[in-house]
Amino acid sequence: MSIESTQALALKARPFAYLFQPERTALVIIDMQRDFVEPGGFGESLGNDVALLRAIIPETQAVLQAWRDVGGFVVHTREAHRPDLGDCPPAKRERGNPRLRIGDVGPMGRILIAGEPGNQIIPELQPVAGELVIDKPGKGAFYATGLHEMLQSHGISHLIFMGVTTEVCVQTSMREANDRGYDCLLLEDCTESYFPAYKAATLEMVRAQGALVGWTASGAQLRAALAPHKPE
What we know:
By secondary structure, the chain is an alpha/beta fold. The chain has helices spanning about 35, 40-45, 50-55, 55-70, 90-95, 145-155, 165-180, 195-210, 220-225, and strands at about 10, 20, 25-30, 75-80, 105, 110, 130-135, 160-165, 185-190, 215. The longest helix has 16 residues, at about 195-210. β5 (about 105) and β6 (about 110) form a beta hairpin. The strands form 3 sheets. Strands 7-4-3-8-9-10 form a 6-stranded parallel β-sheet, with helices on both faces. Strands 1-2 form a two-stranded antiparallel ribbon. A two-stranded antiparallel sheet has the order 5-6. α4 packs parallel to α9. The model has no long low-confidence stretch (mean pLDDT about 95).
């Protein structure tokens, strides 16, 4: 089902109203994959508490369903590398001191390798037919993916972001999108970090200086704006 042409909706957001037409907007869900969100994956191998990230799943599910209900375009991303690691530079693989490195075998297969069980989107947010799934070798969704061209082919000018982690892959993707001319909104309760202070700082940076990178709002605010446009 496609969205019928609509006038721009005004969503109460920070630092001021976010105006968007649903038919020209994509919901972008960053890296809600098992390697980051479930025990035994790469996130936990770095010593992080994945329960922090799992806390956003219910609201993220609710927003995704509301977006699907109005026929909105959806993009899912996965941070994923080729099995030969040819697209994973040593500067990335060798950084830090994780218990398991990218490409190593973990409880859910090889860490951050395309096609492995741990690299899949979590069951609660599984893509459905017609939704775009992007495997990205970097932190940003636009690097080496062709995402910009795909969005342009669908007439997309606005992006609404959810996912993890706020300060790394989400923020990087938003900045890449901003440089390409997209107006971006980040849903505060549908994104999370292993470090709550990093999330808070990122939200402030995103909306600083009159929405320098983008806007922020809650999932409930977006769902309320969409509710009148849900088909009977």
